[in-house]
């Protein structure tokens, strides 16, 4: 999602490598590049201005620690400031007891409201709650059916009324129905329009007045960049928003919306949508997002995802191995087979430190998998657990055995070794991933 921003940041900081210390001049140079990168990523210009000022101030005040090169130090500073810009983390939903807790979703048409209503309901259901969805979008003809279909799919009840165009009436009867059915959470899927207009705002405000929601979330399409942020500002002026849900961060979004929305509206991003599937909704973690933007990967989310999919003991073992740097090619192969089974490989790989930002244009298909698998299978068990022993003659033997070029074997081993080193640094928490920036 943030590939281009990540690339720009990486190039900028590489330029600082080798320079002895941080000076005002080289910070200014770097900041010019960072400014351009942020503007290109469609970050609000006021936010960019303040951000660059904050980074510069932090950089000039920073002691150059012996073990860090200026490039590393700048990455750390930018990462901290990005985290601050998008934070503090606030992804909890406020629930009332006795319920039901009413959550109103507002947003423009096409922002992903209906899909998000179902994703949220699915998530809450998994957490042991009893949600009900209410089809308050009476503008878009197919919206009610869409919500009903999603409700059936995730086995969550949907309240709707095909005989009225009165949004207030449906939302009130929805909350009543939820109480009667013993549901503890009501998600109101309200109507959107193509643009923010008075009619839309009046309707949503009336629904909010009639149902007194405990939480009002704005669903925003991250792909429309600054327009998303501007509409968030307008919604925030008319409704007392509690948070924002940014959708379509898996697409070609330049990332600007994620970076600016908190700074512009003062409201936290609660969740992010990372795909069309029902389980593609994640809590928003500013620190992890900052790492992703900087191309440092997101080991924590990766391990969490693994924990969801694999049994806990095994995930723990993998985490330990990552931290100790004893994660071998055999483990790599095992995990790869599982990820392959799970699908969604590209999105998982993007979380890997040092790999995510190299994926652009790379389409990891089954053939590529088979090639990697072939190479690893041609190694002895000892070589798999300790790829450092792969001298040129061993590499030649493996290449011949798996029908690839020697450079392919060397490339795989090099990339694996780098990732393992980074995983070790990041999984053990030391230096917040800074150690992973070797060679900068
Ligand atoms: P609504 O008009 O606001 O209710 O929007 P919909 O829920 O109908 O969503 C509009 C389109 O966006 C649909 O095709 C959804 O599948 C798609 N969509 C929603 N959220 C995401 C997301 O996080 N990622 C991607 N790629 N597509 C999404």
TrEMBL record:
GTP binds at residues 107-114, 189-193, 247-250. Keywords: Cytoplasm, GTP-binding, Hydrolase, Nucleotide-binding, Ribonucleoprotein, RNA-binding, Signal recognition particle. Part of the signal recognition particle protein translocation system, which is composed of SRP and FtsY. Belongs to the GTP-binding SRP family. SRP54 subfamily. Its main location: cytoplasm. One of its GO terms (molecular function) is 7S RNA binding. The gene is ffh. InterPro entries: AAA+_ATPase, P-loop_NTPase, Signal_recog_part_SRP54_M_sf, Signal_recog_particl_SRP54_hlx, Signal_recog_particle_SRP54_M, SRP, SRP54, SRP54_GTPase_dom. Composed of three domains: the N-terminal N domain, which is responsible for interactions with the ribosome, the central G domain, which binds GTP, and the C-terminal M domain, which binds the RNA and the signal sequence of the RNC. Transmembrane segments: none annotated. GO terms for cellular component: signal recognition particle. Pfam families: SRP54, SRP54_N, SRP_SPB. It catalyses: GTP + H2O = GDP + phosphate + H(+). CDD domains: SRP_G. It comes from Limihaloglobus sulfuriphilus. Its EC number is 3.6.5.4. Involved in targeting and insertion of nascent membrane proteins into the cytoplasmic membrane. Binds to the hydrophobic signal sequence of the ribosome-nascent chain (RNC) as it emerges from the ribosomes. The SRP-RNC complex is then targeted to the cytoplasmic membrane where it interacts with the SRP receptor FtsY. This is Signal recognition particle protein. It is found in: Cytoplasm. It comes from the Bacteria. One of its GO terms (biological process) is SRP-dependent cotranslational protein targeting to membrane. Residues 268-281 form the SRP54-type proteins GTP-binding domain. The keyword Transferase does not apply.
């Amino acid at each position: 999602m943030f590939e281009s921003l990540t690339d720009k940041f990486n190039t900028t900081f590489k330029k600082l490598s080798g320079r002895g210390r941080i000076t005002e001049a080289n910070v200014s140079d770097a900041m010019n590049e960072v400014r351009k990168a942020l503007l290109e990523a469609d970050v609000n210009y006021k936010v960019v201005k303040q951000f660059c000022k904050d980074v510069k101030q932090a950089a000039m005040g920073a002691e150059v620690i012996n073990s860090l090169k200026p490039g590393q130090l700048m990455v750390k500073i930018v990462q901290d400031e990005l985290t601050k810009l998008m934070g503090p983390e606030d992804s909890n939903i406020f629930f009332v007891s006795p319920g039901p807790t009413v959550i109103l979703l507002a947003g423009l048409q096409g922002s992903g409201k209906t899909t998000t209503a179902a994703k949220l309901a699915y998530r809450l259901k998994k957490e042991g709650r009893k949600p009900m969805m209410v089809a308050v979008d009476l503008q878009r003809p197919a919206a009610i059916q869409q919500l009903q279909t999603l409700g059936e799919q995730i086995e969550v009840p949907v309240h709707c009324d095909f005989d009225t165009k009165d949004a207030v009436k449906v939302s009130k009867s929805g909350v009543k129905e939820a109480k009667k059915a013993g549901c503890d959470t009501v998600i109101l899927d309200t109507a959107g329009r193509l643009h923010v207009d008075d009619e839309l705002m009046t309707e949503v405000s009336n629904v909010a007045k009639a149902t007194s929601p405990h939480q009002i979330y704005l669903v925003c399409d991250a792909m429309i960049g600054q327009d998303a942020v501007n509409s968030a500002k307008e919604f925030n002026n008319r409704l007392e928003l509690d948070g924002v849900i940014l959708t379509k961060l898996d697409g070609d979004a330049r990332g600007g919306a994620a970076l600016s929305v908190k700074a512009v509206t003062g409201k936290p991003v609660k969740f992010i949508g990372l795909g069309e599937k029902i389980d593609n909704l994640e809590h928003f973690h500013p620190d992890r997002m900052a790492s992703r933007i900087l191309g440092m990967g997101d080991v924590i989310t990766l391990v969490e995802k693994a924990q969801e999919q694999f049994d806990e003991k095994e995930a723990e073992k993998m985490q330990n191995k990552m931290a100790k740097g004893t994660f071998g090619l055999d483990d790599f192969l095992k995990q790869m087979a599982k990820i392959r089974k799970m699908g969604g490989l590209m999105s998982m790989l993007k979380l890997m430190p040092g790999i995510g930002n190299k994926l652009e244009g790379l389409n990891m298909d089954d053939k590529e998998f088979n090639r990697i698998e072939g190479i690893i299978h041609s190694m002895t068990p000892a070589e798999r657990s300790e790829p450092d022993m792969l001298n040129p003659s061993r590499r030649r033997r493996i290449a011949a055995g798996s029908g690839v070029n020697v450079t392919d074997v060397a490339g795989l081993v090099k990339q694996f070794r780098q990732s393992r080193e980074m995983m070790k640094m990041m999984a053990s928490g030391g230096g917040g991933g800074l150690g992973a920036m070797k060679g900068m």
